[in-house]
Design brief:
The protein has 163 residues and is an alpha/beta fold. The chain has one domain: Glutaredoxin, CATH 3.40.30. It is 41% helix and 19% strand. It contains seven helices and six strands; from the N terminus they run ααβαβαβαβαββα. Strands 1-4-3-2-5-6 form a six-stranded mixed β-sheet, sandwiched between helices. Helix 5 links the parallel strand 3 and strand 4.
Length: 163
């Protein structure tokens, strides 16, 4: 076999592999840019056509947040859904490089940090939220939003990903 033949064959296999993995790629794509989560961001996310969307509000010292992020990323990947995973780190301002390299945050399609008064931003998301993390908002394709303090139940995760 010639070297040219082997290279062409390897290229065809690579193209096929990428085509097969393409639907799952968003679940693996690490955010390159950390975005500010300001006063209007929650409304913008709610109006986004990129739904369904799971939004996890976290802090850098939250002991349970990494497991919630990981389980939502795994559920989205396993389902084959086009759902997006968004992580908002409430105390992440000034820690951008550490956030970029954190393995749990790298599972998100988009990564935000609070930019402004944390209490006011939490109130914009949900007036009933008292700041406990992880706090999860599951935004369904139709825009309906369900909030969960702590990990959302498996049925809620499945339901929000339905078309």
């Amino acid at each position: 076999m010639s070297c040219q033949y082997l290279l062409e064959r390897a290229a065809r296999h690579l193209v096929l592999l990428l085509a097969l993995l393409a639907p799952a790629m968003p679940a693996f794509a690490a955010p390159q840019t950390i975005l500010p989560f300001g006063a209007d961001t929650w409304n913008e996310l709610g109006r986004s056509p990129l739904r369904p969307m799971a939004v996890v509000f976290s802090t850098s010292d939250c002991a349970h947040c990494p497991a919630v992020i990981d389980s939502l990323a795994a559920a989205i990947r396993k389902s084959g859904s086009r759902a997006r995973l968004v992580v908002v780190v409430m105390d992440g301002a000034g820690q951008e490089e550490a956030l970029r390299t954190n393995g749990h945050y790298r599972r998100a399609n988009a990564l935000y940090v609070f930019d402004g008064d944390a209490m006011a931003l939490r109130f914009r998301v949900n007036p009933d939220w008292r700041g406990l993390t992880p706090y999860v908002a599951l935004i369904a394709a139709d825009g309906a939003t369900r909030f969960h303090a702590g990990p959302p139940p498996a049925e809620a995760v499945r339901a929000f990903m339905r078309p």
